[in-house]
Design brief:
By secondary structure, the chain is an alpha+beta fold. The protein contains four helices and five strands; from the N terminus they run βααβββαβα. The protein has a five-stranded mixed sheet with strand order 1-2-3-4-5, with helices on both faces.
């Protein structure tokens, strides 16, 4: 069994950028440090007013993170990552619950969504368990450059 922890929910800032990228990498998320995840891109996204980055800390250590965004009508849970050492302890559920609370109470949204990689069965099961339903959406994107 895992040792008990009492994670602390926190809002993350540009000052937490390095720890966020380190956690994403450790958790196996792709990082485009020269593109959309570059320091200046992250700072610009944080200053936009439509993004909130939340995390969970075990003491000083960042152990889980999620990027919350919205377009004024739908909230998006992005880049959810939990340190592999801390998985299966409910940390992802805690971040999703905070995302839903924020989208509802602070932003006034009634729809929340997440895009999941087709091969990420663990995340699919997590969102299924939390009442999210899969739709018939085809995701398309166009990029100005490969690292974007």
């Amino acid at each position: 069994m895992y040792p008990a922890i009492t994670p602390t929910l926190c809002d993350l800032t540009v000052a937490d950028y390095a720890a966020i990228l380190e956690l994403w990498r450790h958790a196996g998320l792709p990082v485009r440090a020269e593109g959309r995840d570059a320091p200046e891109a992250f700072a610009r996204q944080m200053a936009s007013g439509i993004q909130r980055v939340i995390g969970l800390r075990d003491g000083e250590r960042l152990v889980a993170v999620a990027v919350l965004t919205h377009d004024g009508r739908k909230g998006w849970i992005n880049r959810l990552a939990v340190d592999p050492v801390y998985r299966r302890r409910g940390l992802a559920q805690t971040l999703i619950a905070e995302a839903e609370r924020w989208f509802t109470e602070a932003v006034g949204l009634e729809i929340w969504a997440a895009l999941l990689e087709a091969e990420n069965h663990t995340s699919q099961a997590l969102f299924d368990d939390l009442g999210y339903r899969r739709g018939n959406i085809v995701y398309v994107s166009k990029r100005t450059r490969a690292g974007a």
